[in-house]
Amino acid sequence: MPAPLTLGSLTVDVPVVLAPMAGITNAAYRRLCAEQGAGLYVCEMITSRGLVEGDQHTKDMLVFDELETTRSVQLYGTDPVYVGKAAEILCAEYGVAHIDLNFGCPVPKVTRKGGGGALPWKRGLLGEILEHAVAAATPYDVPVTMKTRKGIDDDHLTYLDAGRIAQESGVAAIALHGRTVAQAYSGQADWDAIGELAASVEIPVLGNGDIWEAADALRMVEETGADGVVVGRGCLGRPWLFRDLAAAFRGEEVATLPTLGEVTAMMRRHAELLCQHMGEERGCKEFRKHVTWYLKGFAAGGQMRKSLGLVSTLADLDGLLADLDPDEPFPASELGTPRGRQGSPRDRVVLPEGWLDDADGAGCHLQEDADETTGG
């Protein structure tokens, strides 16, 4: 069985990381997942500029549950100075125990500024950002990791260079999503690339992409030599995946699939936590987006789904959930199937003009928006 994941001074008993997802991995969802099993649960991505400039929206995202003992935050940025200052603020003012840097986001509004998955093409700039972040976090004994993709497209791969630069910069680990920016979330993740990266660096490598069941995580680690896994879309509407992952990595029997009654209890707990953190009105509104994921494959009819998608109080939610059949078995047809966004590959990745002309330069330090929030 894989050993615990060591990230500098931080030890993660089960080598599983919840990927930050915009609008999903807030304090309530992180608490819900942590109640299922051990792992590292990362806050929604925030922008370095937003944090440094005191943007209120950014501050509002930096909320932690009272039982969240290991605070983990993902930073996005394209300017080394801003990223360094933001890292210091997270350590000094928010008591974080882990900082992850996003170099994997495929969203056009991010890549057109040279950020996210586009940035590692500029090797000098990547190294500069990593060095500033590590230098800022080191006095606080906080490990810095990074997440990236294979590259911009198949003709512009960056992951092996990124791994080397990460190691040279003092980064504690690198996570690789086995897709290019051009692929976004379509097609299959390339686990061979994860194995190639793991063989080329001495720092821990985490594999990301197409982990839908606990068995997928074990297979990824076995096939690639990765030190752990990062789970994103696979846990949408299935926070118990972290229970299964913890059991699988410990060599224990993975729990049976939940009945609809057990799923509705999880839905109720999720809504309750959201309301605790946000107030009932906003918490119920936030919960609505999760209904489709929780009920995927179950027989709940269109009217029930519509009503759940309009729920505004916990009492309303309780009344609706009581009408579902608690004994309905989990739909086995959903096992191993993609969840969340997939989409189509892109013909062209939106990049700053002339971005691909020079891979060695630091590149221009393009300014991200203070309120930029998205996922990788």
TrEMBL record:
**Top EC class, one word:** oxidoreductase
Reactions catalysed according to its record: a 5,6-dihydrouridine in tRNA + NADP(+) = a uridine in tRNA + NADPH + H(+); a 5,6-dihydrouridine in tRNA + NAD(+) = a uridine in tRNA + NADH + H(+)
Cofactor dependency: FMN
InterPro entries per the UniProt record, alphabetical:
Aldolase_TIM, DUS-like_FMN-bd, DUS_fam, DusB-like, tRNA-dHydroUridine_Synthase_C, tRNA_hU_synthase_CS
Cited Gene3D superfamilies:
Aldolase class I, Putative flavin oxidoreducatase, domain 2
Which region ranges are annotated with the description Disordered? 328-376
Coiled-coil region list:
none
- Keywords of this protein's UniProt record, alphabetized? Flavoprotein, FMN, NADP, Oxidoreductase, RNA-binding, tRNA processing, tRNA-binding
What EC number(s) would the UniProt record show? 1.3.1.-
Which CDD domains does the entry link to?
A: DUS_like_FMN
Q: Name one GO molecular function term.
A: oxidoreductase activity
Q: Where is the DUS-like FMN-binding domain?
A: 18-315
Domain of life of the source: Bacteria
Give the function comment from the record: Catalyzes the synthesis of 5,6-dihydrouridine (D), a modified base found in the D-loop of most tRNAs, via the reduction of the C5-C6 double bond in target uridines.
Concerning its family, UniProt says:
Belongs to the dus family.
From the Swiss-Prot or TrEMBL record, give the protein name: tRNA-dihydrouridine synthase
Which species does this protein come from?
Nocardioides mangrovi
Lineage here is: Bacteria, Bacillati, Actinomycetota, Actinomycetes, Propionibacteriales
